[in-house]
Amino acid sequence: MKVRILGMSVQNTARQQYASSYLVNGTVAIDAGCLGFHGSPQEQETIRHVFLTHSHSDHTATLPIFLENAWTPTGECPRIYGIPETLESVQRHIFNEVMWPDFVALSRRMHPFLRLCPLEVEVAVSADSLSVTPIPVHHQVPTVSYVISDGRTAVIIAGDTAPTNRLWEVAHRTAGLQAIFLEACFPNALRALAEASYHLTPEMFGREIAKMPPGVRVIATHIKVRYREEIIRELAALGLPQLEIGECEKEYEFSEMLVGP
Ligand SMILES: [Zn+2]
Ligand SMILES: [Zn+2]
């Protein structure tokens, strides 16, 4: 399984993640923070499945741009997945004829731009050759993380969350789990802001790692760009060997671990 943290293509800030989007095996996206700014329309057209973690703009901002880029008058339209609360917010606050034309209504009258696919928490759906399961986490609006498995290896893309428990219970029983992408939004000095906005600081991040199964790579993402160096210093000070700093545009490849001789 291949996972890429999408960077911003609008300027030379490849390591900086202003908004959240991930691409799995090239055709399945998690969130659309900068998805619509990434690559050519032909490349975006190959992305058939977009799973939203929640409604916040840094995870949905370029969804309209992506749908416009990916649309062709004859091709199959992308499927947009999310829990009902997220899909309702997207319809009410983005495709509302003010922020953007109502692509949902237009899709009933012409060749569709998108198909909305509501998810039930903890119920897996298939997308290409992947199984994707939403697990509720603790954030300011209804939010899920995704457990993604190809049948042999699995990763968790945790999206935005304050300290949480159910996700780590699920992680412990996920077969072939190799990596967890987890946010580290704010430096320790901004703990009050992290708590008010339901995010993590490096110190809180360290306590989440203690709840995870051992031997799994933990990749820190969603590092606020203004505080990036401070956050990376504080994460390094945790001294955890399984911890890596997420790099945009790097291809993370996960394959089956061979056990025994
Ligand atoms: Zn959020
Ligand atoms: Zn966010």
Any chance you could write out the topology, listing elements then pairs?
Blueprint: E1 2-5, E2 22-24, E3 28-30, H1 41-45, E4 49-51, H2 57-60, H3 63-70, E5 79-82, H4 84-93, H5 103-109, E6 115-118, E7 125-127, E8 130-136, E9 144-149, E10 154-157, H6 166-172, E11 177-183, H7 191-196, H8 202-209, E12 217-221, H9 228-236, E13 243-245, E14 251-253
Parallel strand pairs: 3-4, 4-5, 5-6, 10-11, 11-12, 12-13
Antiparallel strand pairs: 1-2, 1-14, 2-3, 7-8, 8-9, 9-10
One zinc ion binds next to helix 2.
Description:
The protein has 261 residues and is an alpha/beta fold. The protein contains 9 helices and 14 strands. 44% of the residues are buried. The mean pLDDT is 94. One zinc ion (ZN) is lined by residues 54, 56, 139, 160. The site of one zinc ion (ZN) has 4 residues, from loops.
Shape: globular
Major beta sheet summary? 7 strands, mixed
Quaternary organisation: single chain
Q: Please state the average pLDDT score.
A: 94
Determine the fraction of residues in helical runs and give it as a percent range: 10-25%
Uncertain segments are none
* Widest sheet: strand ordering: 6-5-4-3-2-1-14
Distance between the termini: 24 Å
**Bound small molecules, deduplicated:** zinc ion
